[in-house]
Write a structure and sequence with these properties.
The chain is α+β, with helices and mostly antiparallel strands and 259 residues long. The protein has two domains: 5-137, Fructose-1,6-Bisphosphatase, Chain A, domain 1; 150-255, D-Maltodextrin-Binding Protein, domain 2, CATH 3.40.190. 34% of the residues lie in helices and 26% in strands. The chain has helices at 5-25, 44-60, 91-95, 160-165, 169-178, 189-195, 209-221, 247-255; strands at 33-35, 41-43, 65-68, 72-74, 81-89, 102-109, 112-120, 125-130, 134-137, 154-157, 181-184, 201-204, 225-227, 240-243. The strands form three sheets. Strands 4-3-5-6-7-8-9 form a seven-stranded mixed sheet, with helices on both faces. It has a five-stranded mixed sheet with strand order 11-10-12-14-13, with helices on both faces. The radius of gyration is 17 Å and the shape is globular. The N and C termini lie far apart (39 Å). The relative contact order is 0.14.
Length: 259
């Protein structure tokens, strides 16, 4: 895999570019909001961020593959190194002038995210990591919680309705009953807060690889176990279960199989 320090430095630079653009357009009356065919939102700011990130990567890593939410895949589809990003995650929040938005920047090597930045400029929070190198944040070095009891655990999730639609309604209720508290969180700050030890687990049943890749790398670098609901260490199946190493198998067992 090689030394990831240079790649992390580049990912942080990409996050700076993204944040500069998103801050400039945030709450600007001229922000243009459109509805995509899948009913998600896109703005002119999303498109500008993605275009600029691709320009930087074309100069800095011309041989790497790039996957962005707005423009799709460019480069060798079988390439070992793939940059994956969501230019503005939480576009619905962004379009309404709320704080829960940010840039998600990741590098995957051989299909596994190993470098990630989760940057949320309106919250003045940023988390970053490279697996086997470092896990850090605006508040200093980060590591996952060491709590061993689910009865004391604080768990973030996307709410019961989405889990019911996925067929895990009974499972999510078992997790809720076993946990100290569950919080409905709808933005990527939940992943950063897990990496910082502020949550013991984050459960998300719906997303694309650009929604999860950066957080996967940051949480893994901070010591979390991150899988899909089947227990596979992947960020591209549309589900994500992240927790500290002690609680992760307990939560997977409670979730069980889809009905």
């Amino acid at each position: 895999m090689g030394d990831l320090s240079d790649d992390l430095e580049l990912a942080l630079r990409l996050a700076d570019v993204a944040d500069d653009i998103s801050r400039r357009w945030w709450r600007d009356p001229a922000l243009d909001v459109q509805v995509k065919p899948d009913n998600s939102l896109v703005t002119n700011a999303d498109k500008e961020v993605e275009a600029r990130l691709r320009e930087v990567l074309a100069r800095a890593r011309p041989d790497d593959t790039v996957l962005g939410e707005e423009e799709g895949l460019t480069g060798d589809p079988d390439g070992r190194r793939r940059w994956i990003f969501d230019p503005i995650d939480g576009t619905a929040n962004y379009a309404r002038g709320r704080h829960g938005f940010g840039a998600l920047i990741a590098l995957a090597v051989d299909g596994t995210p190993v470098v990630g930045v989760v940057s949320m400029p309106a919250l003045h929070e940023r988390w970053w990591g490279a697996v086997g190198v470092t896990a850090d944040s605006t508040g200093g070095p980060i590591a996952v919680s060491t709590m061993e009891s689910l009865e004391e655990a604080h768990v973030a999730y996307s709410g019961p309705a989405v889990w019911r639609r996925r067929g895990y309604g009974d499972g999510i209720e078992r997790v809720r009953a076993a946990s100290y508290e569950m919080y409905t969180v709808g933005d990527a700050s939940a992943f950063g807060n897990l990496a910082s030890g502020r949550y013991e687990a984050v459960l998300c049943p719906g997303g694309k690889v650009w929604d999860f890749a950066a957080s996967y790398a940051v949480m893994t670098a901070a010591g979390a176990v991150v899988t899909d609901v089947a227990g596979q260490p992947r960020a591209d199946t549309g589900t994500l279960v992240a927790a500290n190493p002690t609680l992760h198998p307990q939560i997977l067992a409670l979730l069980g199989s889809a009905a």
